[in-house]
Amino acid sequence: MPGDILKKRKIAVLGARSVGKSSLVVQFIENHFVEGYYPTIESTFSKSINYKGVEYDCDIIDTAGQDEYSILNSKHAIGIHGYVLVYSVTSRNSFNMIEIVYDKLVNFCGMSQIPCVIVGAKTDLQQSRNRQVAPDEGEKLASVKHAAWVETSAKNNVNVGKVFELCLAEIEKRAPGAGAEPPAGRCIIM
Ligand SMILES: Nc1nc2c(ncn2[C@@H]2O[C@H](COP(=O)(O)OP(=O)(O)OP(=O)(O)O)[C@@H](O)[C@H]2O)c(=O)[nH]1
């Protein structure tokens, strides 16, 4: 049965520096929160994710923080099935970076949209520091970009698993034949 075949999916996590990309990935993979800040060069993690009864063998690529002048690394666009674009709800600049990174990706891929989830991270800090990005701004940007959107706290483990479920949902709804059973006796594209 097609549902029994392990499907490989590559997900890249991008966004400005220090927005919490690594913390989100580490919380998801290793179930703990990293308090200190250790700038990432690049790390790849593997995890099997069950989504709608199908087991997906996922590579999650945690990338170095970007700024508006960063050149998109082709490794983060070629062979990637879906994207997690992270901003911090306490940083307007990091929110502005989402559109810049998104536009670089669609230009590079030559597509009008990409499977993507936009993540507003560090919601636990909204009380102590000023929240700079309102939830409806995140939601609106996501709707313009045909992306999913969610707010998270890696520290309190809020919505961390949901990020990757939403990403798989975005990938699968654009997959060839999505929503339809593959015709019997034909090849299935993995
Ligand atoms: N309070 C709080 N702090 C967080 C959260 N997520 C990350 N941090 C802190 O924010 C800082 C940066 O987190 P990282 O996960 O290293 O950020 P990053 O985006 O991977 O950073 P780069 O590797 O530079 O791109 C660290 O001190 C984390 O402990 C969160 O949900 N809540």
Characterise this structure.
This protein has 190 residues and is an alpha/beta fold. It has one domain (2-186): P-loop containing nucleotide triphosphate hydrolases (Rossmann fold, 3-Layer(aba) Sandwich). Helices cover 28% and strands 24% of the residues. It is built from four helices and six strands, in the order βαβββαβαβα. Strands 2-3-1-4-5-6 form a six-stranded mixed β-sheet, with helices on both faces. Helix 3 links the parallel strand 5 and strand 6. The two termini are 13 Å apart. The model is unreliable at 179-190 (pLDDT under 50). The structure holds guanosine-5'-triphosphate (GTP). Guanosine-5'-triphosphate binds next to helix 1. Keywords: GTP-binding, Hydrolase, Lipoprotein, Magnesium, Membrane, Metal-binding, Methylation, Nucleotide-binding, Prenylation. It holds the Pfam family Ras.
